[in-house]
């Protein structure tokens, strides 16, 4: 009896097991308290039992490989004093009144959450609770305090849908260690303003650099909350902006050629409906499969001179051939690629040299404004609006790594990998 009590963590020596039944992999124990005299805590009169109510409780601890279920026989007591009539239901220490699982379940759920590879659904299934109960248990017991701010912090949004009013959560990261300082369920001003205002002033004034993308509320934080900091626009997001614009231009070309192909198909007297498959033309094939040659940084492309058979074009091709064919489809693609590469080279060449970068960026803006291309005219205006913030991204600082001290450019690169983890965990 004592060993079973310890195994179940019942914490009550007055409990006896009146029945044990086994059905396949489930073992059911019937538990009840010993009958003894009870007296009213209000008036002191003797109280009598008004019957027994049976509750079925899950216990997450296996016994001899069996799933364990407890049947609790609870008496209801009532005072015999007609002027009092106090009533009370018998209780068991190892389970709360309104729960279907023993108290040990909550602690085992919290322990299961330590394994980041396990989903909430699998934890809930294992302990016979709902997904919501498992999450509420985590929130009830686990308090995730933010880390203190350092003199260089990175901020970025990640699409998690944690807040019903905002799809984007806000990640704050320590630039030196890569550790997440905090995660806010929303990036909206109504949530971020009181959050940063509540951080002690001595922490906020110690921040020197605030690294972000070109989202205006982030840039304006250094004026409102971090008076001694300068804003840094991450170079990755600047390059991402222009790459996205070029990709949209190529996708628009693909739509135009597909429309041409559909019209030619109909002109040949063939019927066209939503289920009709039209094989991709030469232009659509090249723009879909090889537009990365335009979008990727030219220095990172491994050009292969060896010829290989292209089954769609029915000829031998190499990387240079694909590039030439893309430029034949639309002559503007060469100019767009070359103008984009000017910024890529500028961004790489001036690492650690913010003063040189300032001079060269002014020249680059002037060239983009005069090029006559609407995409790069807009890009020039973007560079003008974020001029000083972009220059700040060329600053180098010392970081500590496994190999010791090394120099690193101010960048949001580390936070991008952290955003990926947040998505994977969700």
Provide keyphrases for this structure.
alpha+beta; 426 residues; 3 domains; six-stranded mixed β-sheet; Nucleotidyltransferase, domain 5
SSE inventory with pairings:
Layout: H1 2-8, E1 15-23, E2 26-33, E3 38-39, E4 46-63, E5 66-79, E6 87-89, H2 104-112, H3 120-126, H4 131-141, E7 152-163, E8 166-174, E9 180-184, H5 189-198, H6 201-204, E10 209-212, H7 216-224, E11 230-233, H8 235-267, H9 282-290, H10 292-295, E12 308-310, E13 315-317, H11 319-329, H12 332-349, H13 354-370, H14 374-385, H15 387-392, E14 396-401, E15 404-409, H16 413-425
Parallel strand pairs: 2-5, 7-10, 10-11
Antiparallel strand pairs: 1-2, 3-4, 4-5, 5-6, 7-8, 8-9, 12-13, 14-15
Number of domains: 3
Q: Estimate the strand proportion.
A: 15-25%
Structural class, by secondary structure, is alpha+beta
Biggest beta-sheet profile: 6 strands, mixed
> How much helix, percentage-wise, in residues?
40-55%
Low-pLDDT runs: none
Give the overall average pLDDT: 87
Instruction: Name the overall outline.
Output: elongated
As a whole number of angstroms, the C-alpha radius of gyration is: 34 Å
Total count of helical runs of at least 4 residues: 16
Number of strands: 15
Span between termini: 44 Å
